Amino acid sequence: KKGQKIDGKKEFEEHCAVCHKGGGNIVNPAKTLSKKDREANGIKTAKDIIATMRKPGPGMTAFDKKTVSDKEARAIADYVLKTFK
Ligand code: HEM
Question: Is the CB of residue 11 less than 8 Å from the CB of residue 18?
Answer without folding.
Answer: no
